[in-house]
Amino acid sequence: MNLFPKLVVSDAKGAIAFYTEAFGAKEADRYEMDGKIAHVRLVVGDAQFTLKDEDSVDPAPGDRAAVILMLEVADPDAVGARMEAGGASVIFPIEDHPYGRMGRFRDPFGHVWIISRG
């Protein structure tokens, strides 16, 4: 059994470029309809997530995220820096906490990510 999120974004091609640069994501498969991305699966290490362009059924989240995604990485500082360079905003900077080193970011597409040391 697998469970992975599907992110709805206003610019799927831009999101793919952002996640590829920030996380080192690799594109596993893609389906397009009428010039829009209906599905793309991205793989980051052992994790997977999908995304699609927004449409009348699935709008992009705008500035309100209903889900917070947590990504464990070897070097959260480097990933956070790449996210910022790609246009993400810092909600909480990456710092050491009693429960680990982590920070929180909003990506350019409205999704909130906790980046932590895995």
From TrEMBL:
Record-annotated VOC domain positions: 1-118
InterPro entries with a match to the protein in the record: Glyas_Bleomycin-R_OHBP_Dase (IPR029068), Glyas_Fos-R_dOase_dom (IPR004360), VOC_core (IPR037523)
Source species, domain of life: Bacteria
Xref: Pfam families: Glyoxalase
PROSITE patterns membership: VOC
Designated name of the protein: VOC family protein
Protein species of origin: Actinomadura barringtoniae
